Amino acid sequence: MPVSGLSVNPECVSAFNELKLGRGGPKYIIYKISDDQKEIVVDEIGKESDYDTFREKLISKKEKSGKDRPSYAIYDVEFELEGGEGKRSKIAFITYINQDATGVKSRMVYASSRETLKNALNGIAMNWQANDPGELEWADLLKEASKGKGTI
Fold first, then answer.
1. What is the mean pLDDT of residues 26-54?
2. Distance from CA of residue 103 to its chain's centroid?
3. Beta strand 87-96 with 126-130: parallel, antiparallel or unpaired?
4. CATH number, domain at 56?
5. Residue 58 lies in a domain
6. Does 151 reside within a domain?
7. At a CB cut-off of 8 Å and minimum separation 6, what does 60 contact?
8. pLDDT tens-place string over residues 117-136
9. Percent of the chain with pLDDT over 70
């Protein structure tokens, strides 16, 4: 059993493997902790390639109490290298926990369970932690994924 006590639903890994294959599959996956707090499950799978659409969906998730709900996400970051060196793609694991608008218990559960999900997903190229919506800007994610060599 994982340190956090949560398990990873097999659909989480299946969806991730489909994203890794590309070819018209998902562009992003948003994960959540189940309502019974026993496992990490797929919340939403999207094929939209617009980062702003994904970002808005990620930051708009709410708990039953109305507070912001933390989430994990996988996003296929595609970018063009400067100087015409071609296109690249990196799979980013994103942890979004809005420190100002999320309950303490949710923050703790999501923070302690992050590694459980990451360890179940083979092929993650980069990790991104965001503690407020402003830390989810495309330019920052692109800079990290491309090591500063990508163009918008």
1. 95
2. 20
3. parallel
4. 3.40.20.10
5. yes
6. no
7. none
8. 999 999 999 999 999 999 99
9. 97
Rounded Cα gap, residues 130 and 102, in angstroms? 13
Give the DSSP H/E element, type plus range, for residue 18: helix 10-21
What are the pLDDT digits (tens) for 74-115?
A: 999 988 887 777 888 899 999 999 988 778 888 899 999 999
The residues near 137 (Cβ < 8 Å, ≥ 6 apart) are none
Integer angstrom CA distances of residue 29 from 74, 77, 127:
5, 12, 14
| pLDDT reading at 16 higher than 70 | yes
Name the pTM for this structure: 0.90
Structure token digits, residue 42: 């797929």
Give the count of domains, the chain. 1
In a domain, 2, yes or no: no
- Kindly state whether residue 32 falls inside one of the protein's structural domains: yes
Q: Which residues contact 74 (CB under 8 A, 6 or more apart)?
A: 16, 19, 28, 29, 31, 91, 92, 93, 94, 121, 124
Domain that residue 57 falls in? 7-146
Place of tokens 């039953």: 64
Sequence-distant (6+) residues with CB within 8 A of 4 are: 109, 112, 113, 115, 116
- Pairwise CA distance, residues 105 & 131, whole Å: 15
